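Fold it.
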Amino acid sequence: MSYYISPRFLDKLAVHITKNFLELPGVRVPLILGIHGRKGEGKSFQCELVFEKMGIEAVHISGGELESPDAGDPARLLRLRYREAAELIKVRGKMTAIVINDLDAGAGRFDQGTQYTVNTQLVNATLMNIADNPTNVQLPGSYDSTPLHRVPIIVTGNDLSTLYAPLVRDGRMDKFFWEPNREDKIGIVSGIFSQDGLSPSEIEQFVDTFIDQAIDFFGAVRARIYDELIREFIHKVGIDRVSARVVNSADGKPNFIKPDFRLPRLIEFGNLMVQEQQRVKNSRLVEEYNAGRLNFNQPTANVAPTTPIQNEVPNNSTKVETVYKVNYATSNGQVNGAKLSAETQEQVRQLLAQGYRIATEHADERRFRTQSWQSCSPIQTTEVSDAIASLESCLNDHTGEYVRLIGIDPKVKRRVVEKVIQKPH
């Protein structure tokens, strides 16, 4: 299977990695390259393709390895992998890079409810130390004066703003926002379906039909096409004999004929997956549960009656599914001149009266689209007037951005309310 490498992606990685292996007089080269963008756009996979094309050996670290029950273990792991990578350069005589996938998931802080541990602090401090002294990375309890070879570090994440700000600053980390354009998507999807007989015009039509979907959506559609063949195989073998036939069978793994990859069928399965995505967005049952728990379903509160939303099923089917969506406010919660609406003020009173804490988050247009909210200044008061004043101050500080009110149950440290109280337009 022939995979597509974006020229922009290839150029950015090739320049960053090569620059770290050169000695440029009087130039301070950032050791870390942070590749960020929305989920499912193939950041890690594009890195793998670039490494294969350039003949680069990659040493991988997962964001999940950056936490441990024992304080100091993740920081030691970073230093150990870095020294191993430097040794690979020396022994094998080829470029090597360290790749930390999903760094923001392991070391980022998304809101006030995210626990900030000693390991998180040590990971940030260790990465900053390595970026500042890339040829002098020591293990705890030992010291080796021999300079190490410089090893470029590639980190991926959805939102690098959740990381410790001094780590992300220019000079330590170079940033690259990966958002594939239409040409990139067509190239990548062509590689995914290269063996399935789709023409270039069909690939373009398929991409344009789902132009707002991430790259992984198209791979998932291809996998979904096989469902009917597998379902037929299960019924043929028998549901009680599938395990014996698939695992350690003397007949070997079952083989399947090539399914129908015609464009109308791909679009049909794509529409089904889009409908499933929309159901997840529309259900939001936690809001319904929390609305009942906070007694916001009374006429005087801020929950409007549930309204049925009818979603048509694809393929001109007459079946209609009813999904109930809860609306927290009878108005859009907009403020007028940085003043909270009467509905929002009443909601704040009810939250504080029931012992909940108040918090706020803000996001610009781009962060709002990716749901990457940032926390505002903490609101510690339990007085209604002070809380309202703090909320209005947050609105003034973030004029032109989305701002939402958060209600938090301090006993279980869980959110009970999320409501947008300011929109930029």
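The longest strand covers residues 304-312.
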